[in-house]
Design a protein that fits this description.
By secondary structure, the chain is an alpha+beta fold. The chain contains 23 helices and 25 strands. Helix content is 36%, strand content 16%. Bound molecules: zinc ion.
């Protein structure tokens, strides 16, 4: 009885459970299928993508709908048949039959994924993809939209439910229209209408089956199938889709064969967008919801000018082996970008055209030197300070390792005033100056000047940082130069036209005193000061004042020219993203001509005309500086015996006049300070008796400290090696071409004799002992011998790294 009751109870309970289950399932099914759709999801006006404009509202991209007459959306009633067939063949073969989700496709995808051991297929229907795109769009527009929408089972279920509801609410053709309007086709193109205009220059209704199949393949993996970057992959995908269209009966075998034979021609020229790298950067920097329209600081007309300039210089750049060029123009007053060219050819896939060049760190060569001078000017050095351009060895962070910088052309120019040393871009005086202020302070100063890429320690870079052995970005370089143009005030550059400084959202700081900015600018804008190296009348000269500096990196990989007027700062980098070296290209021949044209275009644009009679200095001369005449050799106030003098803007003072020049016989003689005597002797500017004395003194005091103890008092050795000193270590300078990295071999003998030089047992030279032999540095440990005619030998062992 009890058992029977139990059975009856359990039977009725089972029926009750079943009824409940059916009700719940029906209810859940109905909720899933007929439930509400959040109306904000379907606000299709929000689907139109963001338009990025220049400072005057001219669209930089999305220009396609600019005429306002052509629709940018496909309507369900007039979907192009070729595109319909291609999209369903590519994405969802049972689209017309399934209820929104396709269990068969999911099962097949699961099998494929298990076999492959990874996710290779999603099994999503077109409807599910529409659901996903709508949900992602709403997520982007909401708070926290900067972070990607969460993925996983929950998201999949949410998409599937929305897909089922969409199928209830819309016709299949309407869903397909949503899909084609929302899908991403690569290169910032949303929607089939934009994509067909951008890639094929035609209306979506006019696409051939071959073109339609091509487009339909893109949304699956827009970056992999990018026609500009990987045309081969994109075409392989197109072939697969054409075969499926044939299998589905959308194409006859003949039509399919003809489509496969059709040669796809991609339009590149009517740029789907101007300043693509800039637009990408702007969109990537946005947080939260994207407004429908974003105004930037860019000047579309100047940007178009720069694009034209690059096109016209392209053959010359190719002759120098340069495939990439980056150009930026900054508005000095407000710190906004006026032009931004990232690579010289965004769609040049072969040469990494999509890389944003101005933000890619590269070696700047000499282009950083002005900042070492600026720092030294802050600390008492002036344009009239004399700097040593003589063979020099500087200690490095490693004990016993010396750094021996060399000049670009391998020559030394003796005493150089800071003006000429900076304007002529000599390496040795710049390193001497960096040694004076110290590498850690140079590094800190560069960081304050906005260079964000100098992540290593000062001892890692060493003094070579002033010669550009650390990689920096062009946009940061231009912002740092603009600080000099502004009289020493650094402002964080921006693409936003509204002034964010008021809101405290933008960094701003004083980098150097106005006097320092004036001095550096006055030197960089002085064509006579750089003439001894750069000549006159080239691409660095303009009919109005321009402060300009060039740079060339290690082994000619990078070539820079940066310059400014009061209004604008222009920076040009020429090189190859893949680091292929350039050919026969220095700052003046590679980036220089592009810089020249870009500067003229920028000034014409900002000032409405080229200011031909402009004489006002770029940076106003601060109070407290007066024109003073200094000796061109010593930099001291010019005395009556100084043969050559020049004007400098210096603080008033009553310093002692030049002590170098003094009367001798019927002429003028120079009393060379000790550090210049050796150089003066080799340059033939010092008489022989003085020279022999100086050489011995130098050999004893400066280059062989381990043999200290005044050599002057000892009988001279029959032969000794003054250079290189025994036990020295040399670092090969990474910023210079190998052919300029040579070591002078110099022997000291009581009287000039022939000296035979050997290195590692091989004769490398035979010359008089008063003329040094030059030997190109090669890594390794080397034994160097010098032999006089009587067979007496001196030896020295060095290490080159
Ligand atoms: Zn003098």
């Amino acid at each position: 009885m009890l058992r029977r009751n139990l059975v009856v109870f359990s039977q009725s309970r089972r029926a009750w459970l079943a009824a409940t289950l059916v009700t719940v399932c029906l209810g859940a099914g109905a909720w899933v299928r007929f439930g509400p759709i959040d109306p904000s999801l379907l606000d299709l006006d929000a689907a139109t993508s963001t338009i990025v404009t220049d400072r005057n509202g001219v669209p930089l991209y999305e220009a396609l709908s600019g005429d306002g007459t052509r629709s940018t959306r496909l309507e369900a009633a007039d979907l192009p048949p070729a595109l319909v067939a291609a999209a369903t063949a590519a994405e969802d073969r049972r689209f017309w039959r399934h209820p929104g989700v396709d269990p068969l496709a999911i099962a097949r995808a699961a099998v494929h994924n298990v076999l492959a051991g990874r996710i290779i297929e999603g099994g999503s229907t077109i409807t599910q993809q529409v659901a996903k795109m709508l949900l992602e769009r709403r997520h982007r527009a909401g708070p926290g939209g900067a972070a990607p929408r969460r993925r996983g089972v929950g998201a999949k279920v949410e998409e599937a439910i929305l897909a089922l509801r969409l199928e209830h609410r819309f016709t299949k053709r309407e869903i397909l229209a949503h899909y084609l309007n929302l899908a991403a086709f690569g290169n910032q193109l949303a929607g089939a209408v934009h994509a067909s205009r951008a890639y094929f220059g035609c209306d979506a209704a006019l696409l051939t089956p071959a073109q339609a199949a091509f487009l339909a393949g893109l949304p699956q993996r827009p970056s992999v199938f990018n026609p500009y970057r990987r045309p081969g992959k994109a075409v392989a995908r197109q072939r697969v889709i054409l075969r499926r269209m044939e299998a589905a009966g959308a194409l006859t075998p003949e039509e399919a064969a003809r489509a496969a034979d059709e040669r796809l021609v991609f339009t590149r020229d009517p740029a789907p967008f101007l300043a693509p790298h800039f637009v990408e950067m702007v969109l990537a920097s946005l947080e939260g919801p994207r407004p429908p329209r974003i105004r930037t600081t860019l000047d579309a007309a100047l940007q178009a000018d720069i694009a034209g300039i690059i096109r016209s210089h392209r053959p010359a750049l190719e002759r120098h082996g340069a495939a990439n060029v980056a150009v930026v123009v900054l508005d000095n007053a407000r710190g906004g970008w006026l032009a931004w060219e990232g690579s010289g050819g965004y769609f040049d896939a072969e040469h990494g055209g999509a890389i944003n060049g101005p933000r890619t760190p590269r070696q700047p060569g000499s282009a950083l030197k002005p900042f070492t001078y600026a720092l030294a000017f802050e600390e008492g050095v002036t344009p009239a300070s004399v700097l040593p351009d003589v063979p020099s060895h500087f200690p490095t962070a490693e004990p016993g390792v010396l750094y021996s910088p060399r000049n670009y052309d391998g020559r030394y120019r003796g005493p150089l005033l800071a003006r000429r040393a900076l304007a002529g871009s000599e390496n040795v005086p710049a390193v001497a100056l960096a040694a004076r202020v110290g590498a850690p302070r140079v590094l800190r100063f560069l960081t304050r000047a906005g260079f964000s890429t100098l992540a290593q320690t000062a001892s890692y870079y060493g003094l070579g940082i002033t010669l550009g052995n650390a990689e920096v970005r062009l946009d940061e370089m231009v912002a740092a130069y603009a600080a000099l143009a502004r009289g020493g005030r650094w402002i964080e550059p921006t693409w936003m036209p509204t002034d964010l400084r008021a809101a405290g959202k933008r960094e701003e700081r004083r980098l150097v005193a106005p006097r320092t900015a004036f001095w550096v600018t006055d030197i960089l804008a002085d064509p006579r000061a750089r003439e001894f190296i750069f000549g006159r009348g080239g691409s660095l000269e303009f009919p109005f004042p321009v402060a300009v500096k060039t740079g060339t990196s290690q082994a000619y990989h990078d070539n820079w020219t940066i310059g400014y007027t009061r209004d604008v700062t222009v920076g040009v980098w020429v090189g190859n993203f893949d680091r292929r070296p350039l050919r026969d290209s220095s700052g003046v021949t590679g980036a220089g001509p592009v810089f020249h044209s870009a500067m003229l275009a920028a000034v014409r644009r900002v000032r409405s005309a080229i200011p031909l009679s402009e004489t006002e200095p770029i940076v106003a001369r601060p109070d407290g500086l007066e024109a003073r005449h200094v000796c061109a050799l010593s930099g001291m106030p010019a005395g009556r015996w100084c043969p050559s003098r020049q004007r400098e803007w210096l603080a008033a003072g009553d310093d002692e006049p030049c002590t170098w020049h003094h009367p001798a016989g019927d002429g003028v003689a120079v009393a060379w300070p000790a550090e210049y005597r050796q150089w003066a002797r080799e340059a033939g500017l010092l008489d022989e008796r003085q020279a022999a004395h100086a050489t011995l003194a130098t050999a004893g005091r400066r280059e062989a400290p381990q043999r200290a103890g005044s050599r002057d008092e000892l009988p001279p050795a029959p032969i000794a090696i003054a250079s290189p000193p025994d036990g020295a270590t040399y670092l090969i300078d990474p910023t210079l071409r190998r052919e300029f990295q040579s070591l002078p071999l110099r022997a000291v003998t009581p009287a000039p004799v022939r000296v035979e030089w050997t290195i590692d047992g091989k004769v490398v030279g035979n010359a008089s002992s008063d003329a040094p032999v030059s030997w190109p540095l090669a890594p390794g440990v080397h034994r160097i011998t010098a032999r006089d005619p009587r067979g007496r030998v001196a030896a020295s062992t060095i290490t080159v790294r």
